[in-house]
């Protein structure tokens, strides 16, 4: 007797491929900072500002994208997002001014990738999985790291051998290549195929399909009245500052400052992506078994300590001590995502994906500030030393914020909080010790 594979696993596989296909741009800024500076004479601060616009929109788009997925379906939103990424990356080959860089890299690609950000992961896992939800969250989150692993060495080689325009076109082509698969196989809800979520005995009621912008904004207003939201958002803002904003954007130029070849530094950053896959999947597995608050506290503390020692590890070649840092930082890179998604769902119930979208927006705001600030530090002081030290201190603060979260108290029977289905009664949204 053969056992039929649950459709949830096929949906997860297609979502993984889509995330990989859109991940090329996440690796692009790190290898293009130098070439754009050389060709156009733009300062690192100016180029970093374009990256910051991208990071801000990448985050701010996420909660609205989650609401749009509720309104119009996952498949339509993801298809439109991939087409937008392809357009934004492809048009960059014609740019001649820095404002065009901001428009293409910042606005178009920011909107496209933001629509496929981690709120997309939270939506897919929230709809399709009850059992193994943490593990699948980890695997899908690792899709972005896998994309970085696939694209970063290729983009570094293309940029060095063929120029940055060839790299931009490869990113556009990879996003376009995934569109047919998404339109063909990605499904919105288990009920569309006559099944229940994996591990569930019945389909949960659908959230009301109101105006997407109103749902997203109301989600923020309601969640902002609770203590866990600010602790989660604060910690995740620091997470973004210490990953995408600083290391993801400035590790390669910082290593180059110490005489390391750009292709070598890109290879090290790709290794971060390799170990990130293992770390994020392991974190998803742990999230199903260990208190998410403890996991976040440990992850952030380890990250902070590693950043404090990083400046002493740079040299002209990849020394063993630097490889140890790369392995550790890779394992920790987005290991924070599965426990953060789990906590959003614990505190905010069925609207957890929308609330996580806002928490993720804080992540990207932190990343944007760090990307610009680190570029300014480098322009003014000639090196990145104080950027690394500042990021290490912030990560230690994020550990404290995470450990300050309290387990959700099971609410007494009563009406749910307005708008987003908070896990607390309406009267407890502000006053309950756990809120």
Percent strand = under 5%
Number of helices: 17
What would you call the structural class?
mainly alpha
Listing every helix as H and every strand as E from the N terminus to the C terminus, the arrangement reads HHHHHHHHHHHHHHHHH
Chain-averaged pLDDT: 83
Q: What distance lies between the first and last C-alpha atoms, to the nearest angstrom?
A: 49 Å
The CATH superfamily bears the name: MFS general substrate transporter like domains
3D shape: globular
Largest sheet entry: none
Count the E strands.
0
CATH class call: Mainly Alpha
Into how many domains do the coordinates divide?
1
Protein name: MFS transporter
Membrane topology: Multi-pass membrane protein
Main location: membrane
Pfam families: MFS_1
Structure description:
With 435 residues, the protein is an all-alpha fold. It has a single domain (7-195, 214-431), classed as Growth Hormone, Chain: A, CATH 1.20.1250. It is built from 17 helices and no strands. It has helices spanning 7-22, 24-40, 44-72, 74-91, 98-114, 118-128, 133-161, 164-185, 212-223, 227-257, 262-287, 292-309, 320-332, 337-348, 352-381, 385-403, 428-431. The longest helix is centred in the middle third of the chain and has 31 residues, at 227-257. Mean pLDDT is 83; it is low at 411-435.
């Amino acid at each position: 007797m053969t056992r039929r594979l649950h459709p949830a696993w096929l949906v997860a596989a297609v979502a993984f491929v889509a995330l990989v296909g859109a991940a090329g741009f996440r690796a692009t800024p790190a290898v293009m900072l130098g070439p754009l500076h050389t060709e156009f004479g733009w300062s690192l601060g100016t180029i970093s500002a374009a990256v910051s616009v991208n990071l801000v929109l990448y985050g701010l788009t996420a909660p609205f994208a989650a609401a749009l997925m509720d309104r119009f379906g996952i498949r339509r939103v993801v298809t439109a997002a991939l087409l937008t990424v392809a357009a934004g990356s492809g048009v960059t080959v014609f740019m001649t001014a820095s404002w065009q860089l901001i428009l293409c890299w910042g606005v178009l690609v920011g909107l496209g990738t933001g629509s496929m950000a981690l709120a997309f992961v939270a939506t897919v896992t929230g709809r399709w999985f009850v059992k193994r939800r943490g593990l699948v969250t980890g695997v899908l989150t690792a899709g972005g790291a896998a994309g970085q692993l696939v694209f970063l060495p290729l983009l570094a080689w293309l940029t060095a051998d063929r120029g940055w325009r060839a790299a931009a076109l490869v990113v556009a082509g990879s996003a376009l290549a995934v569109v047919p698969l998404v339109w063909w196989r990605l499904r919105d809800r288990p009920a569309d195929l006559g099944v229940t979520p994996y591990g569930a005995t019945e389909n949960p009621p659908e959230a009301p399909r109101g105006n997407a912008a109103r749902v997203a904004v109301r989600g923020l207003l309601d969640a902002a009245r609770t203590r866990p939201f600010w602790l989660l958002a604060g910690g995740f803002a620091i997470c973004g500052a210490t990953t995408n904003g600083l290391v993801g954007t400035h590790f390669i130029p910082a290593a180059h400052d110490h005489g390391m070849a750009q292709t070598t530094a890109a290879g090290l950053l790709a290794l971060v992506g390799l170990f990130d896959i293992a770390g994020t999947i392991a974190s998803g597995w742990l999230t199903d078994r260990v208190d998410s608050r403890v996991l976040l506290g440990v992850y952030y503390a380890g990250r902070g300590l590693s950043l404090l020692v990083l400046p002493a590890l740079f040299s002209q070649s990849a020394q063993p001590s630097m490889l140890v840092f790369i392995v550790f930082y890779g394992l920790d890179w987005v290991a924070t995502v599965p426990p953060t998604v789990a906590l959003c769902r614990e505190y905010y119930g069925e609207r957890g994906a929308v609330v996580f979208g806002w928490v993720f927006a804080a992540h990207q705001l932190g990343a944007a500030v760090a990307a610009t600030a680190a570029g300014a530090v480098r322009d003014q002081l000639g090196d990145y030393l104080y950027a690394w030290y500042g990021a290490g201190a912030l990560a230690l603060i994020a550990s404290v914020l995470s450990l300050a979260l309290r387990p959700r108290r099971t609410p007494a029977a009563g009406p749910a909080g307005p708008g987003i289905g908070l896990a607390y009664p309406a009267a407890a949204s502000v006053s309950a010790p756990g809120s």
